[in-house]
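FYI - complex with zinc ion, inputs then prediction.
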Amino acid sequence: MSSYKRLFDEKNNQNWLKVSLGISLTKTALEPFVANVIEQFQNDGYKSILQKKCLLPGVSCRLCSTQNVIQCPTQGICKYLRNRTCKFHQNHTYRQCPSKICNDFREWIQIHHRFGGPSWRNSDAGRWSTDWWEIAKCYLPPDGYFGVHTVEMSDFNGLISVIMNCKYFQNYFTDNLAADSNVCTKVREIGRKLRHAPGLLVTDEDWKSCSDALKDLLQDPKYMKGDNHTKDAVDQLNKLEQDTLKVSDEEVLKVLQDSAETLKRLIEDSNIIKEKT
Ligand SMILES: [Zn+2]
Ligand SMILES: [Zn+2]
């Protein structure tokens, strides 16, 4: 018998755990995909900047802070203190990048954001020319990701946000990610529902629709369907549906810890934001 059945006696609790496991194994399958696409995206941006500015290959910049490349005032970032100085730009003001790279990277990130509002506060502009994850962080939700330093450290919601917010990902999807309802909005909804499931209870019907939505994402024909990681995840989801997936105690524990960590981080970061604003 699978261990989640021993740990959770109530059927609807078992469904909650199934959804959590389904999200966890989908997230694991998405990690290399998101990493590969963002690395390619950063590489494309870097090459186009070198070309535009006639710079030599290999040139990078470590001199700029995020404050240096964001103009003041920028909506949602700049906050004015009583003496009319901006809290965000208090120590570093806006200027042109001395290496002629970072301002163009800001443009590149901005024009590829689906909703026009990159999460600048998550990111360190001084690393944009060398570290693709710092670029990815601009597409994470604005709150709750201050301390997320790798693709693996991000939670499911974070990875889905990167895919949805960065328009470059459309190159890898058949489904229209600009549509109000698409494969990504549907799975994002699952994460929300799960976080708000009263008493950790999920009905059979909800579990089935969650599993279907996860599989729809993982089987998008353009790229996902042919990827080995996503194929494995779909196999595991099918087994989870049929109650034949072998799940270790460690995996169950990891899922529970991840859920607790996500909630803890959201609470901590909402406190940090309250203090900062
Ligand atoms: Zn400012
Ligand atoms: Zn710079």
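The chain has a mean pLDDT of 88. The chain has one domain: 3-266.
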